[in-house]
Amino acid sequence: MSRWQYFLRRVLMSIPVVIFGTTITFALIRLGPLDPVSAILGTQYNPQAAEQIRTNLGLNQPLWSQYLDFMYRLFTFQLGQSWVIAPGTTAYELIEIYAPRTIWLGFWSVVIALFVGIPLGFYAGLNPNTPSDYAASFGGIVWRAMPNFWLAIMLVTALSQLGTWTNGLFAWQTWIVRTNVVTPPALDFFQSPVEQFLEDPGGWTESFVRATKQIAPAALVLGSASMGNEMRIGRTAVLETINSNYVETARAKGVSGRSLVWKHIFRNALIPLVPIITGEAFLLLGGSVFVETVFAINGLGWLFFNAAINGDLPLIGTLMFIFILILVGTNILQDFLYTIIDPRVGYDG
């Protein structure tokens, strides 16, 4: 079986998973306690108006009819409109507003986890039982153990009071560019970035730096647990690879240290990290409701939370469908990366 046949097979096998996940989503939002009619009417609730709204929204239709309509609309990407949070606003418009903030947060969270956690873990694995190994291992345990909600509150408090603690010598709000500690990132520089950069390079760069600074504390909190986890697993993977027979054989054949590390140790040590990286990348890109709330990011996590507590059923279904697609997509990407790192995968029939 070729790599692309293996990839196509994984894609086809994911279709029942998407259907099953979407069906469970429908069951939870239709059979659960959420009542969008009560949320729409609020204090002006009366039975006649409630019945009229249920009729208009199709909630009086048989459950099987609602299910077929729900599935058809999702799989044809007719995502509908919000009922409660932003009545009359399409789900596409809401996603267009809130998704860039979550993607920006998730991107920097993944960068922190990948480019800090894995290199430190590999370095500790290459230098076992040394002070640097102990320091990296201890740091990984500490970062892994700190809950996101606690770290978020502590970081907001520290950054807010930093100017007072240093007698005005250093304040986060005025460092590099002026920003608030908790604020949604301004992502205007994403709109026609090439044109904006050519017209005003200094202004575009300042906007980029400001948006990065605004998201940095939240990204550090969201990526901290993943960073510690990847550091720990990376260290273990390197230690196991160093002691393997093929590394000993390569060393006995006179393979240079640099070639041994890059071609034999690092590549094989990445194999157990692939499912960790792809799985955590989905969680980080999906954002965190609490982190987005504490830092006022107001991304997809915040939108999903508000849709859930207000009973905005079409918006809940749309966001869950998107999360399911992202989850399935990351798993397919994981399988594809396996075929690159370990060519034996996918060729055994």
Task: Provide the fold topology.
Layout: H1 3-31, H2 36-41, H3 47-57, H4 63-75, H5 91-126, H6 131-145, H7 148-165, H8 193-199, H9 201-242, H10 245-252, H11 257-269, H12 273-285, H13 289-294, H14 300-310, H15 313-341
Q: Can you tell me about this structure?
A:
It is a single chain. By secondary structure, this protein is an all-alpha fold. It has helices at residues 3-31, 36-41, 47-57, 63-75, 91-126, 131-145, 148-165, 193-199, 201-242, 245-252, 257-269, 273-285, 289-294, 300-310, 313-341. The chain starts with a helix and ends in an 8-residue tail after the last helix. It is built from 15 helices and no strands. The chain has a single domain (3-341), classed as Orthogonal Bundle (MetI-like fold). Keywords: Cell membrane, Membrane, Transmembrane, Transmembrane helix, Transport. Residues 99-334 form the ABC transmembrane type-1 domain. The chain crosses the membrane at residues 12-31, 70-92, 104-124, 149-170, 269-291, 303-328. It is found in: Cell membrane. Its main location: membrane.
Q: Concise description?
A:
This protein has helices spanning 3-31, 36-41, 47-57, 63-75, 91-126, 131-145, 148-165, 193-199, 201-242, 245-252, 257-269, 273-285, 289-294, 300-310, 313-341. With 349 residues, it is mainly alpha-helical. The longest helix is centred in the middle third of the chain and has 42 residues, at 201-242.
**CATH topology group:** MetI-like fold
The total tally of domains equals: 1
Radius of gyration: 25 Å
- For this structure, what is the CATH class? Mainly Alpha
Unreliably modeled segments: none
- Counting helices, strands and paired strands, the structural category is mainly alpha
* Biggest sheet details: none
Please name the fourth-level CATH homologous superfamily.
MetI-like
Subcellular location: Cell membrane
Domain ABC transmembrane type-1: 99-334
Main location: membrane
Membrane topology: Multi-pass membrane protein
